[in-house]
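Aim 2 progress. For Ubiquitin carboxyl-terminal hydrolase, the working sequence is reproduced below.
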Amino acid sequence: MAAMLESISIPPVIAKEECIYCFQSPYNDVAVSDTPQNSLNICLSCFQAVCNRHAALHYQVAINSGSGHVDYLNIAKVKRPEDEEENKKNKKIKLHVVEKSEDEIYQTLWALGRLENASLKFHALYTSKDANLPDAVISKVNQILHSKSQEMVDQTSSWELTIRPCPHVQNFAPGTPDKQAAASACTDCGLSENLWLCLQCGNVGCGRNQVGVEGHSHALKHFEANPSHSIAVKLGSLSQTTSDLYCYSCDDETKFEDERPFVAALSSYGINLQDKLASEKTLVELQVEQNMNWDFQMTDSDGNDLLKLPAGRDYGCGLINLGNSCYLNSVLQCLFNGGARNWSLEGLGKEFPLDVVYPSNNLKCQLIKLNNAMRVEPQMYSHGIRPGSFKKCVGQSHEEFSSGRQQDAMEFLGFLVDTLDKKLFKDSSPNDLFKFSLEDRLQCNKCGGVKYSYEPAEALQLPMPQNDDPQDLMQVMSQYFNGESIEFRCPHCKEPVVANKKPAFHTYPDTLVVNPARIRPVNWIPVKTSNELSLPGLEDSRDVLDVSQFSSNGFDPELEQLLPDEDAGSEFIPNATSSAQLAEMGFQPHAIARALHATGNENTETAMNWLFQHVDDADLNEPFTPPADANSKMQVDSEALANMVAMGLNQKLCHKALILNKGDVNCSVEWVFNNMDDDGELSTEPPQKASKSYGHSAPAPYELTGIVCHKGNSVHSGHYVAFIRHLVDGQRKWVLYNDEKIVVAIPQNFTEMRKNGYIYLYSRI
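Predicted structure tokens for this construct:
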């Protein structure tokens, strides 16, 4: 084996944190001298990690691919005793926690050997306890042990914020200072903390009011009165290494790439960075502190921890936060543990395909791995699992979901459903239980004509009233299904009119996903609201959601008149001169119309050439109906577009929103705020007819079974958790899934569920 080791090349990065088929790691929290319970085998052929239980599976998969993977390095990490002085009772905010080296935390035990072909048992040839090891063994083992790997989540915490220079900083030119020295208090209110210095003129104003920090926004008001004074610096943040710069024009943090103009501007106000020591928390520290406070109540009124539930088939297992993955954790818990009742991956089975050598890159393998841990054998993971390989695999083609940034849980649910349906479940999908059909009824107020259209849906997204008042779900739903008045070009009246647009349930899903749109623009910035929303089934599971009043009545031919098709009104009129000339050549009228339409309706010769090329077409002389003009459907009302752009919204997104919402400005504005990450591109392919209908034709009551809650000022920050209704000690109770923690919820959590509920899952009874 020593000779074999000399010939192999060790990669610089090896995924050695967990088995590729399960979530077993090499780490042992309890010191064990001889035979640790947990270990991993690093395959020396492909450098993937497998546990002892799955080593034979990997061997068989490799054989099926035409190669034999028999040589392995078995690794076990045994925790060293901790020093007593390392008691960390006092929490301290740190942007980067400097971790100990792994060798200081764990003792590494290893064994180098191979699988016996007959028994597939591991036979050790060299171990870490041996003396006089060959140089090749020592060298290669050390390379593997010290190759780069993922940080251990339970050992480290790293918060990162990317700050880039903005155009206002890049074009900054200091003005003539109004003051020779920066004031020590707000010039408007006298506040002596949370002070911001305008780099343009030297004005000192207080900042915004934040949790634990007083402020009256006088620095912002100074900018509003002086729009060219965009850049301000927080005086309490200044030191040789730190400074909080804010651009009010961009409404975001910024920085100087070249600090010389910044230092010069500060000097003109009598500030020398060499003499400064930061006296207040920076913006990032405040953000971190706020994120730490954005947790959900985990203690009762007496301060006791909530009742912890064991990992097992009744409640699944916890999911460890990868840094900003609570949005993913909450959605997965609802899917796998009963929030979406009857959602199941049983159709995939428990066995891994025997032709996939690299399961980390295979979505089916990742789902089997996840399902086995969360549903089949969750009792093995009392401390939770890290869904890192699944997150990487499912989100690898998506710019946002492949990143480490916090994401919108509702967007992720939609992305996950679409991804699984496209890549795995093309015929029958567990996601079918979310799908239903919405009817859209449009009635012209002038002629009374109606138009019915039907759209597939996977969720009911309900606009919330633009205030902070308590709301009731049934009232919000009633307002949504009552419809609205919109501007509409009637194909019968052939002029812009006011029309009533009213949605209704055409079919009903097994699981109704309700997403209250808790986003509203504040100073043109989308801000999440926390209206308290009363909803059926929260406190008493017998209280059901009845949506039968929102059912579609369908078209009534005795009382209603259908509007003509929009495209039928735009008749194609063949060029008269060309038509006459082509008719003289003996071509039939329908063939002439077809040729002129295909060639631009201008040139006789071009149309004639087209006819000669298509003379054998079977439908050449069939009655010709011009196809719908795709470009006409891409047109939007210019005034509506201009009004939306004037609000500071992206023009491309506004254009797409107006098309998708049929010109409805209010719905379009809401769509833009809910889809800021959209690329604005519209598909040019014609919509395909649905080959399958989803949902039930008759309504039924719905029971509230799952909730994804969110705390924070934006759906892209803060913290997500899941509440799922379970049978606990013979009673139906809410269970809180807060990353790796699974506890029984208490009545005090109800307020959080009403104020912070972002996704409500109602299951059909």
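Residues 87-99, 150-160, 684-690 have pLDDT under 50 and may be disordered. This observation will guide construct design in the next reporting period.
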